[in-house]
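Please decode residue identities from the backbone states below.
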């Protein structure tokens, strides 16, 4: 009993998260980590942020971020660790996907890194979106002429015996085209490990480019490296809920978050969320305007995104959805925090240094999430890594 009490006292740490100051790594530099997953895999352990690092090129001020070349460059997915999620504590570890190394193809433009644990295999499984004309991608998912990137799209996979690596490239995957309707390119996605150990992926599937995307949830095969045939979809969502997906489980409900059209552009694109009693549904839209000032159901165009002052969508977050972090609290509870990449707003005007918006989520008794409210900063009593 005394040992348990001692652990509780020494592991608690009040951490303040700022939405007005850039997040820093352990060297004092601006954290170059975006569109990834933040998880703790063991009680009392460190937090892992598996995320993309983008080029330090000037991409500032573009409503549609896909009009530049920076985000489509040879980007790398990295492993970052922190004892308590605080700014200034993040240490960069092993790379996950480096173009041209360890069998990873060199002609892909990577984005959205995700990692989950597979209890059946004892391995950590990483995915990344290979969405810019990647030669290794299975046929049937053409990207078309989006941003001038021809070719096919898919997700690349890797595994590791520990969340810090080392990572081994395992190849490309894509759902069976006959199960998702007409061929089309694969968009943003998010991974979930359920309580029973099963794996799932939620993703968008563009049939006719950015103007028409369907959202699907697929159960994964037992190794989490490919799609099974078990699926739900296309989900009924506001027409422009297309990007920045995240999926998580809380209580009796599964939650799916979708952002609107942004493509790493200025202002973000709003947030829709859905809930379901199981990962395969049935899914119900709970709100198309979780981010006040932006009702995604009222948008009438995707290209260019209708966001910003004077437009139908002016979200207070200014961000494109990244991930919902389940922060373990010192009292044994959990605080869920929505995070989004605030593209085109870096203090030094470099894309890789773009900041993030973090908002603590407030849940009603019926599972509803209260609309976002802007906060310059908020504090959480974190159950930090034991030392």
């Amino acid at each position: 009993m005394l040992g348990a009490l001692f652990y509780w006292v020494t592991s608690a740490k009040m951490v303040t998260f700022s939405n007005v100051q850039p997040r820093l790594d352990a060297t004092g530099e601006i954290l170059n980590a975006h569109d990834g997953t933040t998880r703790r895999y063991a009680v009392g352990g460190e937090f892992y942020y598996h995320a993309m690092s983008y080029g330090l090129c000037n991409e500032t001020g573009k409503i549609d971020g896909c009009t530049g070349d920076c985000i489509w460059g040879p980007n790398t997915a990295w492993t970052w660790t922190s004892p308590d999620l605080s700014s200034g504590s993040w240490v960069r570890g092993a790379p996950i996907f480096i173009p041209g190394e360890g069998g990873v193809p060199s002609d892909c433009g990577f984005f959205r890194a995700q990692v989950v644990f597979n209890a059946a295999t004892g391995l950590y499984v990483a995915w990344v979106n290979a969405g810019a004309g990647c030669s290794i991608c299975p046929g049937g998912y053409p990207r078309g002429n989006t941003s001038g990137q021809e070719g096919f799209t898919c997700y690349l996979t890797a595994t590791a015996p520990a969340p810090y690596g080392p990572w081994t490239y395992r190849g490309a995957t894509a759902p069976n085209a006959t199960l998702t309707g007409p061929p089309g390119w694969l968009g943003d996605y998010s991974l979930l490990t359920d309580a029973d150990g099963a794996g799932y992926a939620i993703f968008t599937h563009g049939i006719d480019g950015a103007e028409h995307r369907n959202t699907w949830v697929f159960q994964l095969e037992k190794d989490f490296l490919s799609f099974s045939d078990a699926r739900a979809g296309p989900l009924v969502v506001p027409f422009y809920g297309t990007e920045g997906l995240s999926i998580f489980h809380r209580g009796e409900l599964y939650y799916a978050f979708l952002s609107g059209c942004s493509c790493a552009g200025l202002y973000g694109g709003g947030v829709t969320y859905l809930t379901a009693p199981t990962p395969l549904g049935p899914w119900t839209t709970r709100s198309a305007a979780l981010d006040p000032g932006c009702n995604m159901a009222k948008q009438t165009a995707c290209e260019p995104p209708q966001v910003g002052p004077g437009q139908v969508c002016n979200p207070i977050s200014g961000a494109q959805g990244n991930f919902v972090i389940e922060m373990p609290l010192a009292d044994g509870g959990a605080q869920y925090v929505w995070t989004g990449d605030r593209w085109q707003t870096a203090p030094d005007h470099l894309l890789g240094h773009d900041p993030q918006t973090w908002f603590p989520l407030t849940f009603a008794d019926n599972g509803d999430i209260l609309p976002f409210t802007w906060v310059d900063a908020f504090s959480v009593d974190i159950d930090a890594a034991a030392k």
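Observation: The mean pLDDT is 89.
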